[in-house]
Specification:
The structure holds two protein chains of two kinds.
Chain A lengths: L1 H17 L2 H27 L5 H25 L19 H13 L2 H16 L4 H28 L1 H4 L2 H16 L1 H14 L3 H9 L10 H6 L3 H31 L16 H4 L4 H15 L1 H24 L8 H12 L3 H5 L4 H6 L3 H31 L5 H25 L19 H18 L1 H13 L2 H43 L2
Helix pairs in contact in A: 1-4, 2-5, 3-5, 3-6, 3-10, 4-6, 5-6, 6-12, 8-15, 14-15, 14-19, 15-16, 16-19, 16-20, 19-20, 19-23, 20-21, 20-22, 20-23, 22-23
Chain B lengths: L7 H5 L5 E10 L2 E11 L4 E5 L6 H9 L6 E6 L2 E2 L4 H7 E4 L11 H11 L4 H14 L15 H13 L5 E5 L7 H16 L3 E6 L2 H7 L2 E6 L2 E7 H5 L4 H9 L15
Helix pairs in contact in B: 4-5, 4-6
Classes of the chains: A mainly alpha, B alpha/beta.
């Protein structure tokens, strides 16, 4: 039965890849990324064999504890738990609980995160291959540790299944999770600075953690190598008790979950509130704008990127504080303009087959394009203006403002125009409606990459005049270039915007059904 | 809900509500629809029945402008769907099967959105949305996001979006799937009144009983071909529609074998 479950998981994986060769390409990219990470960790662990035992022990225990913690937190926080072997699907199959648990636990190892964790954990065996006994202890520790990781993630996902299946929780957690991800650089820098300032503290932390469920399993090899069999035995007991306790919790939770499937309904609410649809002009373009704006606020796939934009200046200021030179802050406004304008290049892909409504109602292509672009412009324009003015406030160099504005507005308008054309013709792989923004999207990764790169290439060609004037201003310091840039940015940008909306609209009118057919493939 | 415009062609002469000629569609190596020609008389309640994968959805998608046919034409009240799509779509209300909705809108917002996309007046729209939602038992959930609706409620809100502009032709793909019996009979009453006042309804279904009771015309489709079409009485020729359907489509397994199913 366990073998059946594992074979099922492998078959699901293989069939998923078989749907299109591009799935394989996407998986290969994910695999390459993981391989690089795993490779460097493994090499580091192998090199640690020559290092001082205390240092090795500290690194292995801290790393292992972090891995265990990660397996506990990430599936819930990112609302991206792997549900291919969702226990709920086995309710009617009457599989004995013990075999179901073993099968699901081992199945959790199949996939990039599981394999990566297992490989890195096995590398610790080499770290402690300073004698046969430490190596065996490390192997046992790695086995128990990896299983604890998988079972912990199962406990957490099962316990929070009813919470996680509530849409509101999914929406909020996905957005909140975005923040630490974007601020990863400053966080890592801050932590590493704190750590290097108090490096004496780390071995102590590791020693303490090695007695807790988090670190016990990972410390076995080190204890034996240090010649402390009593401590090693005690920690082995802690590790096994942890795994046993987690497995027991999981069994209880699973037994309950199998007979009480999560309830994900919500209260009913009477109507009367049309929201933006009631406020904006009652025309097709106005309706599309209102709908798109509503989505920017309500759909985590859109609002996730809204959360990123305010963090942009924070990142740049942080970078400036590191180097003492705030010149890169000048990038805030153009970068935000680019990110926001380009974000609607996948607008129709985000609609998925809901786009059929636009097709069925016979909306004119230009109304569709204009509505989406105006929705984006409604908040992108204020953001870009605030960023540009804020940058000048921060650095105090007001003569840079016209050039800044010219470049940013040029990028914004041109980008919106180009996005309107791109999303009228090409679909890209994006997370499905209702899915977490972090979930690997189904569909054609190759086309996605091609569309993204080609689009960005064309955009950089189209804004060449603004970029040229901006550089000319920087080099010569002649304020005239800044003012010319402002004029060019607004006039050229707006003209390209109009051209983009017109052309995109015409393409949409001509090829709407083909676009819908492309979307149907990935629903 | 206002009554649809009475169709002058019903009295003037036989301009069909929908006329398709030689529609065909191939997906890769599989021929989904293999040359279907069909006339749907104006003012009829027309059922399209067929086994799973017969090409019903593909045919209706091609007839309504959602999927470009490889061959053939579709004409709605004299307007060619593929030559003058915007005009043809004004005449039609479409409930496609298996597509998503803009489900982060509330039910009320979604129907309003569909009306606004069709360029309707705000005041007319507001009154119609209220009436439609209460006729479909959705008033209590008008302010709930569609993503939180049950399957049946989702079907009903999609139906409301198709009805909002009082089209002359309604094309409904599997409209009763997962709809509860009370709502289903409410929907049937709405559709009956709509047909009585001159509108045309096309429904696809694989519930024969429902089609026999509800429709006056029926077409049987299997493996991408039209097997029979006409009034329900013509097609069923004395037998029940279900018997006639199985006879036409074939593939009925004789329930020999499966002996073990009786051995417990």
């Amino acid at each position: 039965m366990v073998a059946h479950l594992l074979r099922l998981k492998l078959t699901l994986l293989r069939n998923g890849l078989r749907r299109s060769p591009w799935q394989l390409v996407g998986m290969a990219f994910g695999g390459l990324y993981a391989l690089g990470l795993v490779g460097s960790l493994v090499v580091a662990l192998i090199l640690l064999r020559r290092a001082d035992p205390e240092l090795a022990q500290t690194v292995v225990v801290l790393g292992g504890s972090a891995a265990l913690l990660g397996w506990g937190i990430i599936p819930v926080a990112a609302a991206a738990a792997d549900m291919t072997l969702d226990p709920a699907r086995f309710t009617t199959s009457a599989i004995p609980m013990r075999q179901l648990l073993t099968g699901l636990a081992l199945g959790g190892l199949i996939g990039i995160p599981g394999v990566a964790t297992a490989l890195v954990a096995l590398a610790t065996v080499w770290t402690w291959a300073r004698g046969p006994l430490p190596a065996v202890a490390a192997l046992v520790g790695a086995g128990v540790g990896v299983l604890s990781c998988v079972v912990l993630s199962k406990v957490v996902t099962t316990a929070t299944a009813s919470l996680a299946s509530s849409r509101r929780f999914k929406d909020v957690s996905a957005i909140v999770f975005m923040i630490p991800l974007v601020l990863m650089g400053p966080i890592v820098a801050g932590v590493s600075r704190g750590v290097s300032a108090s490096s004496g503290f780390l071995p102590e932390l590791a020693a303490t953690l090695s007695w807790t469920p988090l670190g016990a399993a990972w410390s076995l090899g080190g204890e034996i190598a240090a010649g402390a069999p009593v401590a090693a035995t005690a920690k082995f007991l802690v590790a096994v008790a942890t795994l046993g306790g987690l497995a027991w919790c999981w069994k209880l939770l699973l037994e309950r979950a199998l007979v009480n499937p999560p309830y994900s309904g919500s209260g009913s609410r009477k109507g009367g509130k049309l929201g933006l649809l009631g406020l904006l002009p009652p025309t097709p373009a106005g309706a599309v704008t209102a709908r798109a704006l509503t989505y920017w606020l309500r759909d985590p796939r859109y609002s996730g990127s809204l959360v990123v934009v305010p963090l942009l200046p924070i990142l740049l200021v942080f970078q400036g504080s590191q180097s003492g030179d705030y010149a890169t802050l000048a990038l805030a406004a153009p970068l935000a303009a680019f990110l926001l304008a380009w974000s609607i290049s996948a607008d129709v892909s985000y609609d998925n087959t809901a786009f059929a409504l636009h097709l069925a109602t016979g909306v004119k292509g230009t109304d569709d394009r204009l509505g989406r672009a105006l929705a984006c412009l409604a908040f992108a324009l204020p953001v870009v203006l605030v960023f540009a003015v804020g940058q000048c406030l921060f650095t105090g160099s007001w003569d840079a403002l016209p050039g800044q504005l010219g470049l940013s507005l040029g990028i914004l308008f041109t980008g919106l125009g180009l996005s309107s054309v791109v999303s009228a013709r090409y679909t890209v792989a994006v997370p499905l409606p209702g899915d977490s923004p972090f979930k690997k999207p189904p569909g054609n990764v190759g086309q996605t990459l091609a569309v993204q790169f080609a689009g960005m290439g064309i955009l950089s060609l189209l804004v060449l005049p603004e970029v040229g004037l901006f550089i000319a201003h920087l080099v010569t310091g002649n304020a005239l270039f800044g003012w010319i840039n402002l004029a060019v940015g607004v006039i050229l940008g707006l003209s390209l915007f109009v051209v983009g909306v017109r052309l995109g609209g015409r393409w949409l009118d001509a090829r709407g059904p083909e676009l819908l057919a492309q979307l149907t493939v990935n629903r | 809900m206002t009554a649809p415009h009475p169709d002058p062609s019903v009295h003037a002469g036989p301009v069909p509500a929908l006329s398709i000629r030689g529609l065909a569609k191939r997906f890769g190596g599989k021929i989904a629809v293999d040359g279907i020609s069909l006339d749907v008389p104006a003012g009829s309640f027309f059922g399209i029945v067929g086994p799973n994968g017969a090409g019903k959805t593909t045919t209706l998608s091609m007839a309504t402008g959602l999927l470009r046919p490889d061959f053939g034409t579709a004409v709605v009240h004299g307007v060619d769907v593929w030559a003058r799509p915007l005009e043809a779509k004004k005449l039609m209300g479409i409930l496609p099967d298996g597509v998503r909705l803009f489900d982060r809108l509330t039910g009320e917002q979604l129907v309003t959105y569909a009306g606004l996309l069709r360029g309707m007046e705000k005041d007319v729209l507001a009154a119609r949305v209220g009436e439609l939602l209460s006729a479909l038992d959705l008033s209590q959930d008008a302010g709930t996001l569609v993503v939180d609706y049950s399957a049946g409620m989702t079907k009903k809100i999609a139906l409301a979006s198709a009805l909002i502009h009082a089209p002359r032709l309604l094309v409904l793909d599997e409209p009763f799937e997962s709809v509860d019996p009370v709502s289903a009979s409410n929907i049937r009453a709405i559709l009956d009144r709509y047909v009585a006042s001159g509108g045309t309804v096309i429904v696809s279904s694989h519930v024969m009983d429902l089609v026999q009771r509800m429709c006056d015309h029926v077409a049987v489709v299997a493996a991408g071909r039209l097997l029979a079409a006409g009034t329900v009485d013509e097609v069923r020729a004395g037998a029940s529609l279900e018997e006639r359907f199985v006879q036409l489509v074939g593939g009925r397994n004789h329930t020999e074998g499966l002996e073990w199913l009786r051995t417990f």
